[in-house]
Amino acid sequence: MVEEKRKLDRRTFSYYMRVLDANTGKLVGHLTDISSGGFKLDCQKPLPVNTDYTLRLDLPKDIANKSFMVFIARTRWCEPDRLDPTSCYVGFQIINMSPSDREIFMRMFERYGSPASKEEKKNTLDHLWR
Known about the structure:
Blueprint: E1 10-13, E2 18-21, E3 27-35, E4 38-43, E5 52-58, E6 68-80, E7 88-96, H1 99-112, E8 113-115, H2 118-123
Antiparallel strand pairs: 1-3, 1-8, 2-3, 2-5, 3-4, 4-7, 5-6, 6-7
């Protein structure tokens, strides 16, 4: 059994959201898990750990009065998907986000995040702070 190492409430993300590299416009991944201090992406390629990325998150109209936000996040871990060998999961820690964007991020957490089941928590390897 994997012990939960974080104290932040973690939620599975029920809304399909793409996360882009703000500098290149290329897709980095899709949100699958969110907490107040970070998130997990489903990515098509592994990303180097402890690397900072300037990310762009397109926002739905019911969450914010702007179409996107840009922030800096650091990769903390990268694991292959156990069921799909063509993808991997990458955990990010939010490094720099404006206070107004933090409010939007927390609205997303509350509105679209579903508490992880005990079974999901038990079987997960997605610790943000390894």
